[in-house]
Amino acid sequence: MKTNFLKLSVLATLLVITSCSVQEVETNPQEIDLGDKSEQALANVFNGKSPESDCNFEYEGKEGPEFWSSLCSGEWEDCAGNVQSPIDIITSSVVEDGGINNININYEESQVSIINNGHTIQFNYDGGSSADLNNIDYDLLQFHFHTGSEHTIDGKRYPMEMHLVHQDPVTKLLAVIGIFFEEGEEQEVLKEYMGKLPKYKGDSYSSKSTFKVEELLPDDMEFYTYSGSLTTPACSEIVTWYVVKEPITASVKQLANFEEIMHENYRPTQELNGRIIRTKD
Ligand SMILES: [Zn+2]
Question: Which class is 80-280 in CATH?
Fold first, then answer.
């Protein structure tokens, strides 16, 4: 007997999050159960344009950050929203909260796959690594870089910021850990890859050797946390941010190497609009 099931699921294209935005890397059709309030946000994520689309953005000029919300036929209107990232973190207004848990990471070694997507240099991470962020277990998808930093602390901008992008496998919402770089000792973990960073859009580099992103984290993972957005179009307001206080170092030469390829790929800080930034008590 043949039975037709009415499937109340949504057939969506699985997108891999890149550059705090979404670009199509895999096209495995999957059934995705869109939960209640995140549905609209997810729709925005899935509408994120692939690098091949007509929609483009830049960090200056006519497609610069102040125009993002009006580009792409209105699909990026969230960029003019009230819960946007990055922000300037005014430390005197940060609220201490005893209910916040420490970041609990569970990262595995991963093979190295580095891509230049035209906006950032991104290290894609193998599956199986996760982080427990305030009692939600998020999968680590990728990490990438911005020169200078996107978040600022009391107006101070660091020379570089790394974003470790995680996704809740159930709700599909994101959590991003931001790590600042300051000038100092050479960054040993990145040393091996400095000469191999893909220089032009579409370039990539991959190696069978493995990489431990954990070694790129500072000893002290104390953080500021707040609700915000992707920092590139479509600027979807689906991100819980964890901005780590203690910076790590890279040499002047290493920082210059990143900036030479990515140029200034940071979005200006956005209005807080009444949001509260918290830190662990
Ligand atoms: Zn980013």
Answer: alpha beta
